[in-house]
Amino acid sequence: MSGGDPCPHCGTPRAGTSRFCEDCGYDHTTGKVPTLAAPVPASPGPGTPAGSWTATVRADRKYFEENAIEGVEFPADPGERLITLPSPQARIGRRSTSKGTNPEIDLADTDPGTSHSHALLTLSVDGTWLVSDLGSTNGTYVNDEQSPLTAGQTRALKDGDEVHVGAWTTITLHAPTT
Predict the structure, then answer these.
(1) How confident is the model at residue 161 (pLDDT cuts 50, 70, 90)?
(2) Would you list the DSSP string of 61-113?
(3) In this structure, which topology does domain 54-174 adopt according to CATH?
(4) What is the pTM of this model?
(5) What DSSP character marks residue 167?
(6) N or C: the chain end with fewer CB closer than 10 Å?
(7) Where are the domains of the chain?
(8) Are strands 89-93 and 117-123 parallel, antiparallel or unpaired?
């Protein structure tokens, strides 16, 4: 496909040769849109399945200060939340009724620097979580790497790895406890 062709799922023009559609997350390589049967709970409850990967989502002052985004202030009460990662995929972004985005890890009320369809976490068949940038505006960074993932680039993650998105959000993955 050449740059600018419309997404076959939502019609949004494709950004260059990006693997994923910025609006709906459509994967131009596999021809699928990420879907899940149920939304991600805000925190795992007593019914969290054994062997589930979880993630801590938090506002990270160090990441925010390293990026120094002019005109954006770090939240006064940043808080954090622990979520159970749903398989096979979890979209990271900001909910938008007009754009039709409803990511499983919704940062609409917590980080204005996150794109509507920012990144995608995917559980591979071997049980490894992968992160892919969906052509985000501000980039997706893994751990302390100085360069963001390029649009469509995928990186394998392991227990304790950090995914940085938006102005200050850090998502830390936690392997299942035995």
Answers:
(1) very high
(2) HHHHHHH--TT----SS--EEEEEPPSSEEEEE--BTTTTB--SEE-TTT-TT
(3) Tumour Suppressor Smad4 (2.60.200)
(4) 0.72
(5) T
(6) C
(7) 54-174
(8) antiparallel
